[in-house]
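Researcher: Go.
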Amino acid sequence: MPRIPDEDIERVKRGTDLIALVRSRGIELDKHGSKDWIGCCPFHDDQHKPNFIVSPAKGLFHCMACGAAGNPIQFVEKFDGISFRHAFELLNEGGAAAFSGPRNQGVKNASIPRLPPPFDPDGTDADLMRQVIEYYHQRLLKTPAALDYLRGRGLCHDEALEKFRLGFADRSLGLRIPDSTRKGGDAIRTRLQNLGLVRESGHEHFNGSVVLPIFAAAGEVGEMYGRKITVNLRKGTPNHLYLPGPHEGIWNVDALNEPEVILCEAAFDALTFWVNGFKNVTFIYGTEGFTDELFDAILQRRVKRVRLAYDADEAGNRAAARDAERLTAHGVEVFRVKFPWGMDANEYACKVQPAAKALQTVLSAAEWVGGRGQPPSPEGSGEPRKSEARGQQDETHTCAGAPVLSSSLAAELAADEKKPLPDRVTLACQGVAMGEQGRSLERLGPSALLRTGEYHFLKLGPREYRVGGLEKNNSLEAMKISLRIRCGENFHLDSFDLTQDQNRRRFVERASEETRLEKELIKRDLGKLLLLLEEEQTARIAAALEPAGRPAPTMTQEETVEALAFLKSPDLLKKLGEVFEACGLVGEETNRLAAYLACTSRKLGHPLAVIIQSTSAAGKSTLMEAVLSMFPEEERVKYSAMTGQSLYYLGETNLKHKILAIVEEEGAEKASYALKLLQSEGELTIASTGKDPATGRMVTQEYHVEGPVMIFLTTTAVEIDEELLNRCLILTVDESREQTERIHTLQRKARTLEGLRLKKRRQTLLALMRNVQRLLRPLDVMNSWADQLTFTADRTRTRRDHEKYLTLIDAIALLHQHQRPVERDPESGEFIRVTIEDIALANRLAPELLGRTLDELPPQTRRLLETVKSLVKALRKERVVEQTLALFSRRDLQAACGWSYSQVKRHLLRLQELEYIAPRFGRMGAVLKYELLIDADEPGETAHIGLLDVAKLRARTAVPRRSSEGAETGTTATWTGQEATWTPPCQNAMARLEPTTPETCANLAALPERESGLPVAALS
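Model: Structure:
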């Protein structure tokens, strides 16, 4: 049982007449000074001189001799020899029992209860059980903590509490039963133990739980359900309790008289439906608690339809499948009510408001499982009766997790209802005293709370409230704010947690002193302010929790037709290059195409990754932006920098089949490990510690980020992490003088009238290209020539480079998916085929893209080496000397290449370390000269990656040559674009025959088209 709330203890202390209490114990008191009273101390031999002082104004007693001291509750505890809770309950109940204690008893422990028993000891067991249930019901109505718990779960409903006799076991039952050593005490405790209400230890079985009785067929209590209301329970303490023994009874058995029944997994889920107007509901005792009694009753009462509203988890799904099979086997039609994963009916109703409409929605959308005939139309299924539904419109339930209001403040807020709830149960649920029913609270809309700068303002007549610091709160469990009230020239300012009752009381008292306003008026104002701040906070948190990704816009029919026509163009790649130039990217033909194909590969299972490497201001960011602008906004994620752990918390599917672009690789240096794992493994998983919101304890939480994802980086660094380097394609920006001139020409053209017109047209082109990408879908790619392709194997790192080469081919094929038939294999599913033209294009791009990764020199360093060679040849010719005497300085090289001094110095140092050049002389006062150590006439090295000649591949397969964009020449066969079932080609037959001879072509033509794997027209 949780500790007694501080506000309840303070209320009992303030409401107890300490002078009358002490005198009721036979202690004579005389006036002592102006405020205190004095008498003989009952806790020691104090007959000679009175030392026992009672201060009624403070509500305290104190003995000057023995040191005994305390408040009224502690006095009764010490004098009567009972527990603190027993003393509290005695004074809380008041009446004659509190002031008729033993006279001069002393301090021995009492074994006789001071509180009257709530039952007749001579009654039957059935009577005893009913009387205990009634006692628990009365305790619930007097326990604000239990009512607050029900209110937080949307179950504090006057009719439900009265009809189903909900109660609360607050550990006070044991205080009303004689000790087992007393006459009659052992017998009554034994009976309660046999009924399951008391354990062998003497403690109440449902201690600290809201209890719900369940009646058997004979009208007696067959079962009781208990739910703990305390969050921080000891480890191993169950939250859910039942009476010992087998389950007996059906809750809300009248529901089975209806043709349709809602069947829940737990008691509070069923109660949630009931309080929201769905009266035809009952529950089973957990996933394994579908009793034969309930099953037989469903069949006997001829229930036609059952809606299984079990929890949305694995256990709930298993139980639903099992119970649905059992019910449908006996002719009962079954529907499965689907909640969001991990939720039950109560949690869903609390989080989605209004609850009645939310529950109606999931009931109407319930999935038909089986039973009579075909699934009926969902409209009208499971609707509450009109009268009951109307009753729900006037009720307001607090969502779970919302701050709990104290009784006094809730009293003011409850008066806001237009129709008062006169029933004592409703008033108890809302915390309203019977004398406060007539108050009214003016209604305020959300617009009453105004935002100005960092503060929120609420104006109520001449009173102005200013709230600061609301944004620092990230939940509804606390609301730490700075609050200022001003009325005229008077004001009061304080910082506190608005959800804490003690803080509000202190603010009301101090504000009343400073502003001279009535306390009740300020209290009502705080209630209004709290409700408005809760709405503001809820909206802000909901906005923060929305997924970061954007939804894909809906394409019009015209946009779809235009984008599809682009994808089906025979000269697709040529048109793509024209769009790049129209969008302001001149030159860079290989780089832009490679980057575009890499971004397209995000739809594959293992996408490519790209790093654009260049010097500062060379245009690497322009290239990245130009490529990214052609892809939909919802499919790309772009950052300037990333912290080391940020990738792990992006959301499970926020990166799946998307582009992750980072403007500078240096900005993601701390996240390089996660980037490498994401690229190679296709997913990220991290275990981190976090606080459990339910228990407040630190627990291990797992975060998972799914791939695949295409990674796009830029960098100015000469040295790149080797682990990252071998996972990516390396693109280098053209830094030649000719490219610079082309860029200047384009920049000048942008200022002309034609350039302004092109700028307007550019947005239309980009919208088209984004729609083109939206029409592409993930498909598997089958490469019929994969086993014939070749790749260099002289280094271990080519194991990854070879995979990049094959993925590049797949990306080209994927881009052309609307020009290929989508075939289907019974085992692997849908796929498209690679053509020889795809391989030809990949072979044209791969040497430049993959060759750089095999070169020991970075691209810029290799470019400088070629400049050095040209410079040495020019000096050799000019000075008519041998190469060993054609020395050059940094200044000479800087003038030749146009680079800055720092760039020339950095790359010269790399060439010197790799022994391409060597310094010859240059001491203090002399110019440093370098000698080229390799032959200047030797052509620049190009890394050979050992790709198969496409011409040989065509000759081997005897496939007619296609045009540059994939159209076959010399044949009339065309792809229809229709899906077909694929049968693997007869590769053995092709291998045995020589494809270039007439005999070979005749033999292949004689085979069925699907068996040969080639169009018949291609063999004729």
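Model: The first strand starts at residue 30 and ends at 32.
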